[in-house]
Specification:
By secondary structure, the chain is an alpha/beta fold. The chain has two domains: about 1-195, Type I PLP-dependent aspartate aminotransferase-like (Major domain) (Aspartate Aminotransferase, domain 2, 3-Layer(aba) Sandwich), CATH 3.40.640; about 210-300, Aspartate Aminotransferase, domain 1, CATH 3.90.1150. About 30% of the residues lie in helices and about 20% in strands. The protein has helices at about 1-5, 25-40, 55-65, 85-95, 120-125, 190-205, 210-230, 255-265, 290-300; strands at about 15-20, 40-45, 70-75, 105-110, 130, 145-150, 165-170, 175, 235, 245-250, 270-275, 280-285. Strands 2-1-3-4-5-6 form a six-stranded mixed β-sheet, sandwiched between helices. Helix 7 packs parallel to helix 9 (about 290-300). The longest helix has 20 residues, at about 210-230. It is globular.
Length: about 300
């Protein structure tokens, strides 16, 4: 994501506008703020978090588009609340925004959605979809990917260039950029990471299709959500079963979130605290078992 929005990724002009949601990761926010500083861009944030249990996130984004909006940056699956945004509807609203003199592109942080949601990026018509391989794919850390819609590919230029980015002529001189994703490669790649990620993906596909895996994730997250909802000391952020593997909750008995997470880690449960909103987040994958969820509930109670 930083590579795309920095420097030559897009042809930024002073006064251009980038729209964020209030549920983005701090790394994405920092990248947007830096590019805004360098090129005198305008940045604003729309309140998506409030639509977790009621409201229309598509309408919220539509209301915050501006005539100078060039890019909307959002997550498909919100990392803090677990909400899955209606991405296809949002993309349609942005692409059909008539008040802008230039196309409004949509850049998606897919760190939580790739490997967990069934995806058809062609159907979604999203412009940019950036993901990491070590989360829901369970691959090696340090490798990710960027999908660029074919219709906008030629308008995006790499921030960093090397011998792999270019076409070399007979005289050994560069003659242009590679016509495909190779233009975003610089030099030596970490090939072992690529092999590890491909192997991890293959293992997941042996278990079942992306749709089958997603349905299993939702069944297990609902099981966890129901168990947590029955505890007097816990309030789940979502008032209905989540449509993802992320279940966020708060303690209502005054206990420290950090203290609980630290205690659970000693027992082998890896949860994490979040600051916006102030909560605890648990994750379940399709291979999580109901007995493991039961043990987690018991550990929280004790």
């Amino acid at each position: 994501i930083p590579d795309l929005i920095h420097r030559w990724g897009m042809d930024w002009q002073a006064g251009d506008h980038i729209l964020l949601t209030d549920c983005e990761h701090q790394g994405v926010i920092a990248a947007v703020e830096e590019i805004a500083r360098r090129f005198q861009l305008e940045v604003s944030t729309c309140p998506i978090q409030a639509t977790l249990n009621q409201g229309d996130p598509t309408a919220v984004i539509a209301q915050h588009l501006q005539p100078r909006t060039r890019l909307v940056v959002l997550s498909h699956l919100l990392w803090n609340t677990g909400q899955v945004l209606p991405l296809k509807e949002i993309v349609e609203v942005c692409h059909n925004y008539s008040a802008s003199s230039q196309p409004v592109r949509v850049l998606v942080d897919a760190a939580q959605s790739v490997g967990s949601l069934p995806l058809n990026l062609t159907e979604l018509e999203v412009d940019f979809y950036a993901f990491t391989g070590h989360k829901w794919w369970c691959g090696a850390a340090g490798l990710g990917g960027l999908y660029i819609r074919s219709e906008v590919f030629e308008s995006i230029y790499p921030t960093f260039m090397g011998w792999r980015s270019i076409i070399t002529g007979e005289t050994g001189q560069p003659e242009g950029l590679q016509p495909n994703g190779k233009r975003f490669e610089v030099a030596t790649s970490a090939y072992p990471l690529s092999i590890a990620l491909r192997s991890a993906i293959a293992i997941h596909q042996q278990w079942g299709s992306s749709q089958v895996r997603y349905e299993q994730i939702c069944q297990l997250s609902e099981y966890l959500w129901q168990g947590l909802s029955q505890l007097d000391m816990v309030r789940c952020l979502a008032t209905s079963p989540p449509k993802s593997g992320l279940v966020s909750f708060v303690l209502t008995n005054g206990q420290s979130h950090e203290q609980l997470v630290h205690s659970l880690e000693k027992r082998g449960f890896l949860l994490r605290t979040l600051h916006n909103p102030n909560c605890i987040r648990a994750c379940v994958h399709y291979f999580t078992t109901t007995s493991e969820i039961d043990q987690l509930i018991e550990a929280i109670v004790s």
